[in-house]
Amino acid sequence: MKKLKMGMVGGGIGAFIGAVHRRSARLDGGADIVAGAFDIDPAKSLEQGRNLGLDPNRVYRTYQEMIKGELALPREERADFIAICTPNHTHFPIAKACLEAGFNVMCEKPMTLTTAEAEALEALVRKTRLTFGLMHTYTGYPMVKLARDIVKAGDIGKIRKVVVQYPQGWLYKLTGRENMQASWRTDPKRSGRAGCMGDIGTHAANLAEFVTGLKITEVLADLSAFVKGRRLDDDGSVLFHMEKGVKGVLVATQIASGEENDLNIWVYGEKKTVAWYQENPNILRVLDQTAPEQVWKRGNAYVAAKSPAAARCSRTPNGHPEGFLEAFANNYINFCDTIRARMEKRKPTALELDFPGIVDGVRGMKFINAVCDSSEQGNVWKKI
Ligand code: NAI
Q1: 148 CA to middle of ligand 1, Å?
Q2: Are residues 338 and 369 located together in one domain of the fold?
Q3: pLDDT per residue over 222-273, tens digit each?
Q4: Hey, which end of the chain has fewer CB within 10 Å, N or C?
Q5: 213 and 307 share a domain?
Q6: Is the domain of 13 the same as that of 103?
Q7: How far is residue 34's CA from residue 172's CA, in Å, rounded to a whole number?
């Protein structure tokens, strides 16, 4: 396996998600960090490069310098892809510059600030034919892939309803000045039009579309900013309709005191229900009104038989739990295998292509705009 070279923008000292990208990309030995522009403060970027033990010539003051510096290297030495782990408002200019320079991209969500930016990026990905991943973490979990494959096989019958909820509590009273994560997330200039709905509502919507294989077609939203002085939503309830007449409810909130990261989804079919809980991710429950509940456990042969995608994304034996880092790593495995396939001039397989990307990014932006429009216009139905 050719080891891919990773460049990174963001992920400086004290940052949240950059470190998760670095650790998960190298989990299976298929990629490792070689270069970066890690911080908005150039001096701190250099310090982070030293902390990571990188070649000082590959640690840059800005992403523009990184693109220039990496392009100056022989092709076999330069970064094969760049991971963008910065606040939302920077994703578009950085991703655009990387793609235009010929780099594959793994980008954080939400993909851009506006739908127009998202569509411009989509056009660029199609034109350059580069590989673009979007880190919707939760579809990387094996039991979420299993849920999708059980639904796709028709085992639960025609889908009637989806309930997805994503409660967090960490913003229940922070003003935004206390730490860097809260600071940009509560600032419309850096977070975008939505707060909570962009930050975690998009994960929930993406999960609903992934498990059902259906698109959300319209939404009716009620967004709130409960914390005094907050300029963006910190809570939202959304009714939604999907293709094929499926109805849904999505709740995303960051003011649910005491909740950590309790993302849950239930898909109710005409025969059965599938239910998955992110804080207990190694099991998938299948409920049936006429029979005892089934508990599918990750790492077992019966999971592999039902879902090759879940088996491919499992490392440890049954009973040895995997979690968040592994879900990230699963998105990286498929993203990197797709890059490798294209390097070898081979068509990537369906299993390799099983990671979230540019299309999910555009849908995420359309979801954000529709829920904001709906709420601002008095809780009316808005088409996506
Ligand atoms: P953070 O505030 O912890 O870190 C952001 C980092 O980016 C900092 O080191 C900052 O100095 C750096 N930065 C900002 N502008 C830069 C620039 N122009 N050039 C170089 N570095 C720059 O933010 P956090 O929480 O890590 O979030 C980053 C992104 O990741 C956001 O888009 C967020 O929505 C997403 N995210 C995704 C998660 C997932 O599960 N997929 C979980 C958490 C965050």
Answers
A1: 29
A2: no
A3: 999 999 999 999 999 999 999 999 999 999 999 999 999 999 999 999 999 9
A4: N
A5: yes
A6: yes
A7: 38
Residue length, the chain?
384
Nearest to 133 by CA among 382, 358, 287: 358
Phi, psi for 361 (deg, rounded to 5) = -65, -40
Q: Which two tokens stand for residue 224?
A: 């709130």
pLDDT of residue 232: 98
State pLDDT tens for residues 198-225. 999 999 999 999 999 999 999 999 999 9
What is the distance in A from the centroid of ligand 1 to the CA of 352? 26
CA distance 143 to 278: 10
User: Which one of 8, 16, 106, 199 would you pick to mutate in the ligand 1 pocket, going by the greatest count of ligand atoms within 8 A of its CB?
Assistant: 16
Mutate-to-test residue for ligand 1 from 23, 38, 40, highest number of ligand atoms within 8 A of CB? 40
Ligand 1 atom closest to the Cα of residue 44 is 11
Measure the CA dihedral 333/339/343/345, to 10°.
100
Query: Does residue 32 lie within any of the structural domains?
Result: yes
Residues 172 and 277 occupy one common structural domain: yes
